[in-house]
Structure prediction request, 110 residues.
Amino acid sequence: MSNSSISSADDGFDGSVSIAVVTAIAARRNVAPTELPPLYEWIDPDALDALFEPSRTRGPRRGRLEFHYDGHDVVVECTDDLEITVDGKPIADPVSTATVGMSDESVTGV
Prediction:
C-alpha cells in the first residue's frame, strides 16, 4: 500500500469517497472535518460517491477526477486503491473513512 492510499481492498475502494475527500482536506489543514465548509458547495457528494461506486457486473470502477474544494486542488484516483492528492501532494498517512462519532451528513453537509 502506498502512502497515498486512503483504503484498499481486493475488489476496490469500499467506503465513501466524499467522506475520504473531506477527511483528507481536514488532515492536510490539521482540523476536524466538521470545521470545513460543506463539500456540496463545490461538488455533489452523492455524484462523487456514485462515480467510483462498483458496478453490478464489472466490479470496481476505475477513474480519475480533479476538482477544487475550498481553495484546494483535489485529485481522486481510483484503481485498486483510492488515492487522494491535495494541492499536488498525496496525503502523508492513510486516512480512515470510518470517522468515529460522525455521520455522512455531518461530514459532507448533505
